[in-house]
Amino acid sequence: MKLMDNTDREVIHLVRPFKCVSCWFPCCLQELEVQSPPGNTIGYIKQTWHPCLPKFSVQDVERETVLRIVGPCFACNCCGDINFE
């Protein structure tokens, strides 16, 4: 995914390789690489295994966790927002 500024210049590039999605298999957790400028890795967002909650770790370039994101148990809401902590 490419994120552009107002002048249509790419400022952030997100790289997410295809992986199987299943909360029951910790070997299939999702990971996203964040690059800015494109080609320069500045961090990662990595899914943390939990059987019920969507959990993610925001990591710096050395893969040290700097923030955690936790979603609600039931992350389904038709036409509405879902709040994450």
TrEMBL record:
Its cofactor is Ca(2+). InterPro entries: Scramblase. It comes from the Eukaryota. Pfam families: Scramblase. GO terms for molecular function: phospholipid scramblase activity. GO terms for cellular component: plasma membrane. Keywords: Calcium, Lipoprotein, Palmitate. May mediate accelerated ATP-independent bidirectional transbilayer migration of phospholipids upon binding calcium ions that results in a loss of phospholipid asymmetry in the plasma membrane. PANTHER family: PHOSPHOLIPID SCRAMBLASE, PHOSPHOLIPID SCRAMBLASE-RELATED. Belongs to the phospholipid scramblase family. This is Phospholipid scramblase. It comes from Scyliorhinus torazame (Cloudy catshark).
